[in-house]
Design a protein that fits this description.
Layout: H1 5-18, H2 30-38, H3 50-57, E1 68-77, E2 82-89, E3 95-100, H4 104-117
Antiparallel strand pairs: 1-2, 2-3
Helix pairs in contact: 2-3
Length: 118
């Protein structure tokens, strides 16, 4: 099955959102999610525009099937820098897990781990 342009955009935006600081965000709180998408103390190059944040959350349209809900965020685990965010589609309630790359300090620790294990 080929992906549509809309699906590619959705996945891209979920990836972009996973790089932001969504820690402490309450489940289903769309105004707070929009605020976190538009302002972050980390990875400022991934901040959403106001319109993009509203499209991503579905609040820019009157269709309740548009956008995504925030479910959970696991930020920077231990020394690995691993982080993942779970989103739920408003259209079909499916879940998507967005896993982002490590941050430089975590990456360095992870590289040391691999050197020790080799």
């Amino acid at each position: 099955m080929a992906l549509t342009i809309k699906q590619l955009m959705d996945y891209s935006w979920m990836s972009q959102a996973s790089y932001l600081n969504l820690d402490g965000l309450a489940l289903g709180n769309v105004p707070d999610l929009i605020g976190k998408l538009k302002s972050s103390d980390i990875n400022k190059s991934n901040i959403f525009t106001d319109h993009q944040a509203k499209l991503f959350t579905g609040s820019a349209t009157s269709d309740p099937a548009d956008g995504f809900n925030f479910i959970n965020h696991i930020p920077n685990v231990d020394d690995t820098g691993f982080s993942a965010t779970v989103f739920q589609s408003n259209e079909d309630n499916t879940y998507t897990i967005a896993v982002r790359g490590t941050e430089p300090p975590g990456e360095a620790a992870n590289n040391n781990f691999w050197k020790r294990s080799a």
